């Protein structure tokens, strides 16, 4: 394979000293002698030799020549032996076996094969071989130490690199775990860490700390109308502006369009308001995203308090609540935390959370308020009013928990219970004989909007045996305004069954009369504030409004019940106007059904 | 939290490394006690182990010689190990000083060592990568910098395939490499074979290598020949490595004792 036979220049052969070795044959091309071939054969396989057999033989021929020359020279130069040993190792003939076989073959054959003659040749050979062995061992030891050192260095380098890579990856991992990938802002984890550190650091008890919760107003509209890509791009812009506007403060993204700002060492709420205003101003600038100019606003909830006694969880929750106050007030503003308001809301919250259990324990009951005919004073109906016999707070009126129940959706089970209970009780009144009053039950928007209202009412009527015309469902004007086609159909089905439908608080809502045309309404309940106006003789406006309402209702074949009738005078005026029925203290306060029934009998 | 999959592995020099064991077989001292202990156990089970390594190394030398004679000037040596005596770049650049060599090894210590040895050689580089990810090898900037895949490249996978299980689909790995090569490129393969060995010897060898990160996966001559798919085998085909273009008649004696089979294939077209 392209190996020139008997090559003389052996590139792998060792140090330059070797080429300058004494000896008449150095550098002269000639075939390897039988001795060199025997030597090559002896060392083959003792270790890996990165050369051809011919190259090996040529190398050993050169060394043979050097040894022969040394044996013949006077004085004996032992350095030649050292160099030969060194050169063997350099040529990778570098193992214990390689030395052993070299000693053996030189000892047995060199003198004989080369026909060397001298009186003291044995003695000289022994000394020369010893020098070869010494040079060899020395070189092999150095080589071994060098190789050990180099592999250890490589291991250390590799380990250092691996550790560096690990540290880099840990830093990256840590960064990923503590930052928001979209905006690059710190995330909730990092924010909570920093807030906790700000609060818990020793010696900070006297300092003050503040948190601003910021949320974009109607961000959903951006997503819905321009797509999430635009929404995300907007968030990136907002994040960038907040970061720049609030340089020095920790700005984090909690998720969605919620951001939070940590202000340490505050001097009071003024500092926080300044931060909140800077944040609001930063957001307010129009942003151009994908060619759309988007103008967004934000709301901010601010909490600022002394570090001592604060907890990160409380601060975050308080800031979140405060943000919702700002939102509820219409957004585009900041709101400051108010402990009293928060306490009230918490109490309200706790109250609403207790509704399901209270329903199960039977803590609710119904009182009824009579609806009396203005013509003959007869009780034509009663309105069911729910009461909560709270184990700690005593009896609660609906205004302290119905609003909450509506917000949380708990109005659905609670309203369902009221409806069922009212139907159940009203049915028993009919057994008392005579024309029994109908029962009027308030329905919340959520109840009306819910599919299955027809089945629910239908089932109740069948189950209790209450005639449909003795049930009246009261809905508010605003319910009707927000009601879609499906619930209107449901109300129509109920009206067709014979159930009475009343509009509650008529005249205080949107007063869009269009629905009176479309809805199967049987009665209007006029809000008490018009009736209150009847007290003062000089305010004729209310009376005129009432008179118009009554004539309007009658023109549409609707009956009119006036709410909030407190005096006989009011009742008389209402009767004169033509109003059909009245409800209020004048006719009776809310009380258990039995009392009303007793009076009727 | 779960560590992501890009988190790097640590370095464990308490485990024997096949690269350093191989260095020991070749008579080198680039190894640690744990490598020597494993290598000595291997020698106790298979006394010819050092001879096998030397025969394989000699095959590598003759193959590189053959390739430079054939005009190849670019070498991609995958699984190069500890770059001790008789490296590809030493042989190739001695024959053709303009030869370019990229070494690839998965062992970080071997790579660090190679880097030190290659320091100052601007026509050779080393890349830490795994044969199991040929696409990463082929796109590595150092590979791209030194090798021009529009011209012939010799891909060397020498004494490595027995560390690649069939589950890793060696045929597919080699096909990926082949797809990147220009006509006139070469593939050099060698690996351990158990042809003619006793079951006990084979089992013992496999047991010893299970303590390393690279268990043994022994193949027959037919299986190795099949991995040259797409290449034309040059004479004498897949043989015991001492029989591959020996330099002297006695070099090929007792060839099956080498336990290594190998061959060289050329990409036609």
Features:
A: TIM Barrel, 5-stranded mixed sheet, 16 strands, disordered N terminus, B: 269 residues, alpha/beta, Rossmann fold, 38% helix
Distance between the termini of chain A: 129 Å
What is the CATH T-level topology of the largest domain in chain A? Answer: TIM Barrel
Return the CATH architecture of the largest domain in chain A. Alpha-Beta Barrel
Q: Biggest sheet of chain A, open or closed, and with what strands and sense?
A: 8 strands, mixed, barrel
Helix content of chain A: 40-55%
Across the major sheet of chain A, the strand order is: 8-9-11-12-13-14-15-16
Which CATH architecture of chain B? 3-Layer(aba) Sandwich
CATH superfamily of the largest domain in chain A: EAL domain
Number of strands of chain A: 16
Q: Based on Cα principal axes, name the global outline of chain B.
A: globular
**E-strand count of chain B:** 8
Q: What top-tier CATH class of the largest domain in chain A fits best?
A: Alpha Beta
CATH level 3 topology of chain B: Rossmann fold
* Global mean pLDDT of chain A: 87
| Domains of chain B (count) | 1
Helix proportion range of chain B: 25-40%
What is the first-to-last residue Cα distance of chain B? 53 Å
Cα-based radius of gyration of chain A, to the nearest Å: 51 Å
Please state the overall shape of chain A, judged from the principal axes of the Cα atoms.
Answer: rod-shaped
How would you sum up this structure in a few lines?
The complex is a heterodimer of chains A (601) and B (269). Chain A has 24 helices and 16 strands.
General description of the model:
The complex is a heterodimer of chains A (601) and B (269). Chain A starts with 15 loop residues before the first helix and ends with a helix. Chain A folds into three domains: 16-149; 188-337, Reverse transcriptase/Diguanylate cyclase domain (Alpha-Beta Plaits); 369-383 and 411-590, TIM Barrel (Alpha-Beta Barrel), CATH 3.20.20.450. In chain A, the strands form three sheets. Chain A has an eight-stranded mixed beta barrel, surrounded by six helices. Chain A is rod-shaped, with a radius of gyration of 51 Å. Chain A has 601 residues and is α/β, with parallel strands linked by helices. Chain A has 24 helices and 16 strands. With 269 residues, chain B is α/β, with parallel strands linked by helices. Chain B has a single domain (58-199, 217-266), classed as Rossmann fold (3-Layer(aba) Sandwich), CATH 3.40.50.150. Chain B has helices at 18-25, 33-45, 49-69, 88-95, 108-118, 134-139, 141-146, 170-179, 199-210, 221-226, and strands at residues 74-78, 100-105, 124-128, 154-158, 186-192, 232-233, 239-240, 260-266. In chain B, helix 4 (88-95) links the parallel strand 1 and strand 2. In chain B, helix 1 (18-25) crosses helix 2 (33-45), helix 2 (33-45) runs antiparallel to helix 9 and helix 3 (49-69) runs parallel beside helix 4 (88-95). The N and C termini of chain B lie far apart (53 Å). The relative contact order of chain B is 0.15. The A-B interface holds A 1-3, 11, 45-50, 52-54, 92, 94-95, 143-144, 147-148, 150-151, 153-155, 157-159, 161-163, 165-166, 169-170, 173, 176-177 and B 1, 3-4, 6-11, 13, 20, 26-32, 51, 53-54, 57-58, 61-62, 65-66, 69, 82, 84-86, 90-91, 94, 108-113, 115-116, 245, 247-248, 251. Chain B: This is SAM-dependent methyltransferase.
